[in-house]
Amino acid sequence: MFLVEQMHKRKFQKLLKKEIDRMTAFKDQSYFDTLSAPKKILGREDKIQELLGMIVGYKKNFVPPLVSVYGRSGSGKSTLVKFVLDNLPDISTCIVNLRKSKTIFGASNLILEELQGKTITNSNGLNKAIENVESAIVQKLEHEKKNTLFILLDEADSILNDKRGNPSDFFYKLLTIIEDLKKQNYLVSIITISNNLFDQYNLDDRVKSRIGNNHILFDPYSKDEIVDILKEISDKALHEKVDLPILQQCAHLSSSIHGDARRAIDLLHSAAKLAIKENQPISKDHVAQANDLLDSDFVLQFLKTAPYHMKVICYVIGQSTFVSGKQWHYTSAIEKVYSNVLPEDKKNLGYRRVSDLLNELAQAGILESSTKTLGRYGSGKMYRLKFPADIIGKYFPEKFVLWEQMKNEYYSVNHDPDVKYNRDPRLKFDRFEGIKKYQELLGQF
Ligand SMILES: Nc1ncnc2c1ncn2[C@@H]1O[C@H](COP(=O)(O)OP(=O)(O)OP(=O)(O)O)[C@@H](O)[C@H]1O
């Protein structure tokens, strides 16, 4: 007698049939695929026009050396730029996603691989890699009998933040070969896609001056635009029509915090799967459940593989947000709490490295950043979590139980007429003695 039921062929067939039957609710699930190009592009005609205005000069022997396309995640940058390049006549393209490399040498190799299918080893150095890029461009254009090439560097932030390498030098070298190729009557233009304006990265003036004003900002989609995209997708992907309020809820949840078409599509897809599992039409409850699932899946997967100090920083922001209810935190405040919670045997990374890690967390989609001008004190960078703080807390269960206590104490002190900070609405988290006590308790991170 088995305690656990045996799996056998017939039973497996039954399970398979049940799952396939469920899938019949979908007409074509590929419409929900946010990793490939959408089958239909909606809106953004102004951005297509703007990009065309900058690059179509190749028809009259001119291209700008570099165009910077920037904006928040999921605002359609990659989709639109690729669509334009796919549909321009008589040009050649080299499309590379720099997320696959973290260094400028790796980036050169990705370009080389895309151009000629061959990479070189690290020992050859960056100069050799760039030299090979130049000859590979000539070979490709000769082979295709064309004279214009657009190099699309998607997710360029990955190398622009490379503090160990010299991204400025990398771009300068690329721009130099573009000038060289121009003398040989080849037109080459780089289009970078990043989350921030190219100018905001630490680049030399010699690079900035060559970029000039060729910037295109993709602002986040409005809720109505996201609803239109979702409507088109749900009509094609599902047999049953999805009610407008459901689409509006998906758009609302992904625009208020994320502002992201990809996120909205993933949300609707997950809600549809939950509804189909229950054999029900999609409800607002399914969307809310799917939203929680997406958030925690993403955060927990991220934390699982994040390096130690990054985890500590996530923890610090989670705790500060949860306890104080305050969403935005300055780098200096985060760094202070970070120093407090770090165990003695761990090396404190210091302000600059903490600030780098915060940047990386913003790039990874865990945090959102904002720069605040502080009058004569310059400007300060602030961060907030893109997810409810308790999702972070749940990753640290034994510490999370203390957060509730800290929150109560924070609240009571904050409302105690005898406490002198109570009138300051910006009560500083780290100045607060009650929290400090818990901070010490939590010291052994
Ligand atoms: N105008 C649009 N019409 C239809 N679908 C769109 C549109 N814009 C975005 N999408 C959908 O959203 C997904 C994300 O868009 P895209 O990858 O272009 O965003 P992005 O701004 O490049 O984001 P990231 O910075 O994260 O790479 C696409 O795969 C596509 O499915």
UniProtKB/TrEMBL annotation:
Query: Which Gene Ontology MF annotations are present?
Result: ATP binding; ATP hydrolysis activity
Entry keyword ATP-binding: yes
Q: Which ranges carry the AAA+ ATPase domain?
A: 63-217
Q: Where does the Cdc6 C-terminal domain lie?
A: 314-396
Keyword terms of this UniProt record? ATP-binding, DNA replication, Nucleotide-binding
Residues that, per the record, bind ATP: 75-79, 221
Among its keywords, does the record have Magnesium? no
SUPFAM superfamilies for the chain: P-loop containing nucleoside triphosphate hydrolases (SSF52540), Winged helix' DNA-binding domain (SSF46785)
GO annotation (BP), single: DNA replication
Question: So what does this one do?
Answer: Involved in regulation of DNA replication.
Record-linked HAMAP family: ORC1_type_DNA_replic_protein
Belongs to which family? Answer: Belongs to the CDC6/cdc18 family.
| Name of this protein | ORC1-type DNA replication protein
